[in-house]
Amino acid sequence: MANPDVLSTRIEGGVAVVTLGSEKRIFFDPEMSDALFEALMALAKDDKVRAVIVTGGAPGYFVRHYSVAALIATGERLKGTEWQENAPYQAGSFDKAMTLVESMDKPVIAAISGSAMGGGFEFTLACDIRIAQEGDFQIGLPEINVGILPGGGGTQRLPRTIGTPNALLHILMGVTLSPTEAAAKGFVQECVKGKALDRAMEIAKRIATHTPESVRYIKRLVRSAVATPLDQGLALERNLFMRLCIGEPAIERMKAYEAQRITAPSATLQ
Questions:
Q1: Which H helix or E strand runs over 162?
Q2: Are 36 and 93 in contact (CB under 8 A)?
Q3: Which of 36, 121, 179, 183 lies in disulfide reach of 116, CB 3.0 to 4.6 Å?
Q4: What is the DSSP letter of 188?
Q5: Which residues, listed in sequence order, are joined to residue 61 by a DSSP beta bridge?
Q6: What element of type H or E holds 242?
Q7: pTM for this model (two decimals)
Q8: What's the mean pLDDT when you consider all of the chain?
Q9: Which helix (H) or strand (E) holds 102?
Q10: Rounded to 5 degrees, what are φ and ψ at 116?
Q11: Do 138 and 117 contact (CB within 8 A), yes or no?
Q12: Per-residue confidence at 116, pLDDT binned at 50, 70, 90?
């Protein structure tokens, strides 16, 4: 079981909430990375969990950033060695946690409850949805200011989120954003006046009402869309559409909708 100062998990109505850190622990480090990967592995396998929210446990923070002390220790230990550009990539728990977030069947929502810089923000970039909350917080990738670069996926995931030119400008400038600025520039989908966790829970509970199969297929299709040739993506979309369409859960829901005979222009599918 994880140290509660490092990570805690609760499940409510099919929604799992993973809380990172506490007032005593505001940085990502190897212990938090290990605990996060283990927690996500368990939730990915739990059929009762329909969506996952990750949020921060310390007031004013999601996770401030990765531990600079840990990075210094690594640098000091390896100082003087030559690190080749083509050295084999060895993923640690932090990297594995982000890969799992992207690949698991369930949507993962980052409820950015405060400052999230460097590795803290990089983790949120792996999440499917990012919700920030208004406040005097900092969001972004300032690593260049201490002579390094975003090493937890930031140089790869941010361009996929906001486009290459905008990502390059942000990373090279190293200037963090307020939550409202982050929303305006597409770093997060929403910035709310209240608590990010409340809005994330609202979204997650709505998602949890849908069939697991439709949620799983939609995440798979949208996640792979950029890297998949259009013709292949369209073919897979149609095949997964048909797989759902001939399934009993979808047939029952479509019959229930059709029985209402709704024709009002303002009405929507519910």
A1: helix 154-162
A2: yes
A3: 121
A4: S
A5: 115
A6: helix 230-245
A7: 0.93
A8: 94
A9: helix 93-103
A10: -145, 100
A11: yes
A12: very high
